[in-house]
Structure formats: C-alpha cells, structure tokens
Amino acid sequence: MDNIKPWYLSRTIWASVIGVASAAAALFGIPVDGLDGSALTDSVLQAVTAISGIVAILGRLGARTRIG
Fold first, then answer.
1. Are the C-beta atoms of residues 25 and 32 closer than 8 Å to each other?
2. Which of 26, 30, 31, 39 is such that its CA lies 20 to 30 A from the CA of 1?
C-alpha cells in the first residue's frame, strides 16, 4: 500500500458515511429500505471526484503565482 490518496476519495470512508447516514435516517423515520448502499457509495464517490476536479481547476485559474 504505497499509493496515497486524499481521504475524500476513499471508498471505505464514503461507505461508512452512507452507512451512518442511513442508520440516522431510519432512526428519524425516513424510509431507506430500497436503498442500494454500494450503488449509492459509487455515485457519491463519483460526485466527490468530479467536484474535487472542478475545485482544482478553479483554484488553478484563480492562483496568483505560476506553476514552475
């Protein structure tokens, strides 16, 4: 395990967050019976990846110094 990635690109982290969110939703009476956790995790991870790419591009466009 020599590869390093940001925490927000970790499938384990997102699966855990979704698991906690579904348990909390069920606790508050929100129906989560038909929820496919694996598909939801994949979708959330793809959205996070896309958003992080957009933030990186916007950060580079707004930078005040050159890349050397």
1. yes
2. 39
Span 12-67, pLDDT tens digits:
888 898 889 888 988 888 887 787 888 888 888 888 889 888 988 888 888 888 77
- Model pTM? 0.61
CA distance 52 to 21: 22
What is the C-alpha to C-alpha distance for residues 44 and 8, in angstroms, rounded to an integer? 10
Tell me 64's DSSP state. Answer: S
Contact 15, 42 (CB under 8 A): no
Of 24, 3, 13, 1, the closest CA to residue 48 belongs to: 13
* Token digits of residue 43: 């979708």
Collapse the DSSP code of 35 into the 3-class scheme (helix H, G, I; strand E, B; otherwise coil) and give the result.
Answer: coil
